[in-house]
Amino acid sequence: MVSTRPSSFIMGSIGDFAEEFWNVEVGDFGGWEVVSQRTKETAKVTSTCVDFMKQVAAALDTFGKTLVRVARSSTLPELEHGELRNSLVTARDGVEALGQDATDAAAAVTSQANQLSNHLTDARLSRRRATEDINVLSCRKRQQQVKEGVRRVQHARRNAQHKMRDLVDAETHRLNLDCRPDAKVKDRDREKASQAEERAAEALREAESQHKETVKAHNTALESWCSTASSAFRTLQDVEETRVRLVRDSFWAVANVYSLLAVHTDQHQDALRTALLQVDVGEEVAAWVSQHRTCQTQPIPLVYSPVPRPPAGMTPTSSARSTLNSSARSTITEVSVGSEDSGEDSPVPVRKARALYKFAARSGSEVCLKAGQAVVVMEGGSKEWSLVRTTEGILGFVPTKFITPPEKEA
Description:
The protein is an alpha+beta fold. The chain has helices at about 15-20, 30-75, 80-135, 135-180, 185-275, 280-290, 320-330, and strands spanning about 300-305, 335, 350-355, 375-380, 385-390, 395-400.
């Protein structure tokens, strides 16, 4: 999970520590405490960033592993079929892929956190070495040496200047003696003046040599001091530049991980939405009905038809009895519109009964029952369906098994 970063993110120079925090001319090393304190504070900040990234990586890893485990351990409903089942498969595969992406993202964030952690270790070692080279006592000692060297150079220069004045005085005295016209000046005085001039010249040469050696020693000490200080400042500046670069690159990588994770999540969502759009609800239900239908038909509504009676005073013959029986057997016919309202063809009560179970009517020829409801069983029923009248006067058919049998009449 790596992407290119804009060229504007290339970091330039952040300044020169040795120039900004140290006055070379006077050997002031007070800026070392500022730079050292800055390095310590940035180490704490970087450690906090490392802890944050590790926590994020741990959360992503746990989240990803949980999604993968749930997706792999889940079972799809066996009763689902068609495009809906394909959508369920797509959803499960998307969850597993998202979990794997989260696990990979956690690994990438952990890698960045490890790089920052390794830099922290190296930075501590570098800062420790620099501090050992430039500690407080060493700084003060070297500062004192530099200042003593400056004083020695100044003393040697003043001594050389005094010797120069002595030489000038000796030369002036000798010239004065040489220029006197009287003969009272003896050769001995001239010789003394020449010797004094030579001694002054020798003293001047020694003073100049001493001044030169003093300047050379001071420059050597100052160069060593500058080299040590510049090296220490350069070390801490390199540590700080590396830290800033690593923190920037680490969080850039983290942002990149989140971006790619979001892209993959959107892809899984789009795949699931596409699969769901292909699910036709009506077609799914119709396919299930077509596969599992039982081809049962509704019960035929029945009505009682009265049996014709023979005229009074007449004895039915055998042929009349057969006709009567055949008429009785054909009294259960289909219900016609308005037959229930006809008082002439109204059924005759047979017995009282109670509803054993709750029954919901599914057509106009059936009647609803509540468990325990009292009803009157009428003539005109069959073995499977009984014609009953409720206490509200509603007449309709109910399953015979849903009411009490004759031997258990209420």
